[in-house]
Amino acid sequence: MLFNSTDFLIFFTIICFAYFLFPVKYRNYLLLAGSYYFYMCWKVEYVFLIVFSTLIDYFCARGMGKYKDKKTKKWFLIASLTGNLGLLFIFKYFNFFSHAFGDILNNLNVAYESPALKLLLPVGISFYTFQTLSYTLDVYRGERKPEKDFVIFAVYVSYFPQLVAGPIERSTHLMPQFHRHVKFNFSRLLIGLVLIMWGFFMKLVIADNAAEYVNTVYGSVNQYDGQHFVLGTLLFCYQIFCDFAGYSSIAIGTAKIMGIDMMQNFRRPYFARSIQGFWRRWHISLSTWFKDYLYIPLGGNRRGRLMTLLNTLLVFLVSGLWHGANWTFIIWGGLHGVAITIESLYKKIMSRFNFKCKDAKLIIWSTAAFEICLTFILINLSWVFFRSASLDDAFAIFKKIYHTPQTFSFNLSSFSNLILPFTKDYRSLSFFITVIAFIMILETVHLIQEKEHPLFFHYWRSKAWPKIITIYLLIFVIIFFGKFDSNSFIYFQF
Amino acid sequence: MISVIPKKTSRRFLLTLYFVSILLLILFSCVGVAVLKFYFSHLTGPKQTGLGGVLSGVKNDYILLGSSHTALSYQLPEMEKSLDARIYAISYNGLSFSLMYPILQFLSEKDLLKNVHIIIECYTGTAVIKPNLQDIRLYYHAPPALKKRIIKLLADNNQLTKANLYHLLFSSSSKDIVCSPIVNPILDKIFCHGIQTHINSPGMSQNDFATIISPVKGKGLCLDPQNINALNRIFKLLVKNKIQAVFVESPMPAVIESDPSYKQNKEELKKIISKAGFIYIDGAKNFPVNDHNMFMDAGHLSSTGRHVFTKKIIKYFTPVNASPY
C-alpha cells in the first residue's frame, strides 16, 4: 500500500477515526493490526519476517533484563544480531556476495558457479531491522529497560507510518509514546496535514515529474550526451531528496495526527556547507544510527587520527552497502567517506592559520556560498554512482559529462535537444519550466526555514490560518500538477 | 437553548463545521478550475501547431491530418512552393481513424473544411489497435464540443477509467496552460504550419536498421472494427460535405512492409478506401524502403527520407487527382 494511493487514504482515515474512538487500552492492538495489514498489502508472507524479528528481539531483550551477568547478556545480543542480520543477509546481500565471490574465483581461473537465491526483497527490511536492532543494543548497553508489553514492542517495530522507509526511530524516543493516553488535538491535526501535504507535494509534484527525465536518460546511457546527464543528475538530486524526504514528511505527519512525534529525518541537506554537514542533514535517523551503533563502538575519534579516518571510511562503506547490494552504492558510500576524511584533514590544516579580514561579512557570505556550491557539486557527482544501474554505466556517464563542453552550444536547437527527454515532444519545455519553478519554490521555503525569521515563525506557530492556506494551496498544486501513476518510492528498495 | 449545550460539544461542532467548510472550499475551487480548464484550455494552446492553427481561422488550401508519421513525413515549405498553396498539418501521436472522425466532424461543422483538400494519414499500425487517446495534447487543444466527443469516444470503447478521467480533467496539460505565455511564442518560432521545421532527423545506422522488428509480427492483429467503423463514417462525412480527400500511407522500413500480417492489413485497408471511391496512396511504392538512411527509427522518416517522400508525393496533390467529389 503506497502513501500516494486511494487505498492508503481510506486506510488512514479509518485507522485514525478508530484510534481516537477506541478505548485507550485497545489502541495499540488497533495500531498493530493496522500496521500488519499495511505491510501485508505488499506480500502477505513477509509479515512473518517482521513477526520473527519482533519475537527474537523481544525475548532477547527480556533475557538481557533477567540475567544481569555480562556473558549471558552477550549471548542474547549475539542471538539477536544473528537473527536480524542473518535475515537481512539472506534476503538482501546473499546474491551479491555470492556473485562477488564467484567473480574472484573466476578471475583466479577457478571454475565456480555462484549459487543464487530467487527471493523478492521484502519492502523496508533494512529499516525495521535497524530499528529493532537499536532497541536490543540499547538494552544491552543498559540505556533502557526491556519493554514488558509485547504489543507495544510489536507496534514499535511495525508502526505503519515509518515501517517501510523510516525514519529509523529509537526505542527511547518512540516506545514511551505508545504508553501515553493521546487525545485528539486540532492544532496537531493541522500541523500533521501540512506535513502530509508538503510530503505529497515533494513526491508527486517534484520527484515524480523530475523522474520522467531522469529515468529516460539513465535508462538508455548510450543514447544521450553529457549535457543530458548533467541535467539528469541535477534533477535526480532533487528527485531522490523529494522522494525520500517527501515520504518522511508524510510519515511524520500521519504519526503527528495520531499524537506520535517522530524524529526529523531531513533538514535542508542541500544547504550543507560540507559533506559532513550534509550527513547531519540527510537521512538523519540513519546517520545517527551509524554514529551511535557503529562509529562510536569502533572507537570513534578516541583512538588517534588514523583510526578516526579509517572508522569514518568504514562507516560510510557500510552505509553504502545498507542502501543496496551493488558496487555502485558501495562506491557512493566510499566517496562520501573519502570526502569527509579529506575535509577533516583540510579543517585541521586550516585551523592552524588565523585569517583576519576587514570586510568580514562579505567574506563570510561568499565563503558560505562557495562552500554550499562546492558541496552541492560533490554530492551530485556521487549521485551518478547511486543512480547508475552498473559501474560501467557510471563511468560511461562521467566520460560523457567530461566531454559536455565540446558537444553543447548555447542556442535554441541545443536547448530543445537538452530538455527533450522529458516528454520527447515540445511539451518538454513546459515540463522543464514547471519542474524548475517548483524546485525553486522548495528551496525558497528551505531558505525561509534556514533563516528562521522570527516574525514568520511567530505567525506560523501561533495562528491556524497560515497552515490552512498552505494546506489549501498544496492540495491545489498537487491535484493539478502532481503525477499519480508512480509505482513506488525509491527508498522502499532499501 | 444554546447555553444548555455543553461547551465541549459546541467546540467540537464548530471545529467539525470549520473543517467541513474548508474541505468543501477545496473541493469546489478544484472542480471550478477543472471546469475552467475544460471550457477554455484551447484558448491557451499554441497557434502554430495542432488544432490551434486551423481554429485560428487562417485559410488553408490543404490540411494534412494524422499521427507522428504525418509530422515527420512531409516537408511543408517544399510542398507549398511546388503547389503554390498554404498547407497546414494537424498531427497528434497515435491518431487513429476513431479520433480523426470527431476532429473532421468538428472542423466541418465550423465550416473550416470548405474548399480544402484533406490528406488523411492511413497508417495500418494505428488501424489495428483499439481507439485510445495517446496524445493528451489533442484534448488540451480541443474546444469543449470536441472534448466532449473525445470523452464519449473513450467511454464507448471502455478506455475511460476513473484514473484516466481524473487525468484528463485535472492534471493533464496544467503545465502547458500555466507555461503557455512563455512556451507559445517559442513554439511559434520553431513550428511552421503545424510542423517543427528546424528538426533534423539523421538516418538510422545499418545495424539498427537490421534489428527492426515489425510491430505487428506474430500478434495476429487485424483491423480494429471501431477504427473501420470510424473510417466509414469519415467517408460519409467527406461525401456529405463534398470535401476533397486522399488517403496516404507513409512508407515503413522494408522489414515491416514485408511482414505478412502488416501486408494483409494494409491490403484490406486499401480495398476499403478504394471501394468507397477514394484515392489511396501507398507511400512505400517506388520508395527505397531498404535504405537505412531513409528512416530515423523503426516507424518514421529521416530528413533524407522526408525529402524523397515529399518529392514523390507532390504530384498527387492536384485537384484532378485528389478526389472524385
Give structural attributes.
heterodimer, A: 494 residues, mainly alpha, 2 domains, 73% helix, globular, B: 325 residues, alpha/beta, five-stranded parallel sheet, two-stranded antiparallel ribbon, 16 helices, 52% helix, disordered C terminus
How would you describe this structure to a colleague?
Helices cover 73% and strands 0% of the residues of chain A. Chain A has helices at 6-21, 24-40, 47-66, 70-107, 125-141, 150-158, 171-179, 186-219, 226-257, 275-281, 284-298, 305-323, 327-350, 360-387, 391-402, 404-407, 412-419, 428-451, 454-462, 465-481. Chain A has 20 helices and no strands. With 494 residues, chain A is mainly alpha-helical. Chain A is globular, with a radius of gyration of 24 Å. Chain A starts with 5 loop residues before the first helix and ends in a 13-residue tail after the last helix. Chain A has two domains: 6-184, no CATH class; 188-493, no CATH class. With 325 residues, chain B is α/β, with parallel strands linked by helices. Chain B is built from 16 helices and seven strands. Residues 320-325 of chain B have low confidence and may be disordered. The chains are: A mainly alpha (494), B alpha/beta (325). At the A-B interface, helix 17, helix 18 and helix 20 of A face helix 1, helix 9 and helix 10 of B.
Short description:
The complex is a heterodimer of chains A (494) and B (325). Helix content of chain A is 73%, strand content 0%.
Report the C-alpha radius of gyration of chain A, rounded. 24 Å
End-to-end distance of chain A, in Å?
17 Å
Counting DSSP H or I runs of 4 or more residues, the number of helices of chain B is 16
Oligomeric category: heterodimer
Helix segment tally of chain A: 20
- Using DSSP, what is the number of strands of chain B? 7
Helical percent range of chain B? Answer: 40-55%
- Report helical residue fraction of chain A: over 70%
Mean pLDDT of chain A: 88
SSE topology string of chain B? HHEHHEHEHHHHHEEHHEHHEHH
Task: Summarize the helix and strand pattern of chain A as letters.
Answer: HHHHHHHHHHHHHHHHHHHH
| Uncertain ranges of chain B | 320-325
How many structural domains in the coordinates of chain A? 2
Structural class of chain A: mainly alpha
Largest protein-protein interface: A-B, 24 and 30 residues
Strand content range of chain B: 5-15%
The whole-angstrom Rg of chain B is: 24 Å
